[in-house]
Fold this protein.
Amino acid sequence: MDEVRTSHHTLTLVTLEPRVTQCDLCPLSKTRRHAVFGEGDADAEVMFVGEGPGEAEDRTGRPFVGAAGQKLDEVFASVGIVRETIYITNVVKCRPPENRVPTKKEMQACWPFLEAQIALINPSLIVPLGNTPVQWLSPGVGGITGIRGTFLDWRGGIQLFPMFHPSYLLRNPSRAKGSPKYLTWLDIQKVRTWLDEHAGRKDA
Ligand code: SF4
């Protein structure tokens, strides 16, 4: 993977994608149907990072297209965010069997891809969705329930803003004050504000 790390000057998302779709660096390659690279604006200000593909994503090769993806679209729509203006991917690009949490080894094997995506897209905000991506990106930072909706300094001037994973909202449908849904609707408004405040940063 040194090649990915050392060739950012020539590497683009377009040339990186086939390395992912043809990757066999970890055992998940043996059970996946399609690796899911990620999609959205290659110059996005905000990147959303989930845990890994599920069944629908494995079948289609696209991120967040199943029930959780539809829930995420609802969350986006509540503040007028369209997917084409953000970038969305996962910590591991291939589906873990039975949707289990990816192992540390699998996340390690896949990390150069996400790292390269972050370097190429150069967002100012990364939104880890759920516990797995936030623990991977910032180990020891604390559980998702305590840190969601807060801005955390990460690296290279990038901030993390953890939010609940949309599948957690599917399991907790209440909209009552303080519920995961209620909190997520508050959180996405902060992302909207971030987008508004940072619009045009990359053109400056
Ligand atoms: Fe390669 Fe990542 Fe898929 Fe593992 S999960 S085979 S490292 S693309």
In short: Residues 8-198 form a domain with the Uracil-DNA Glycosylase, subunit E fold (CATH 3.40.470.10).
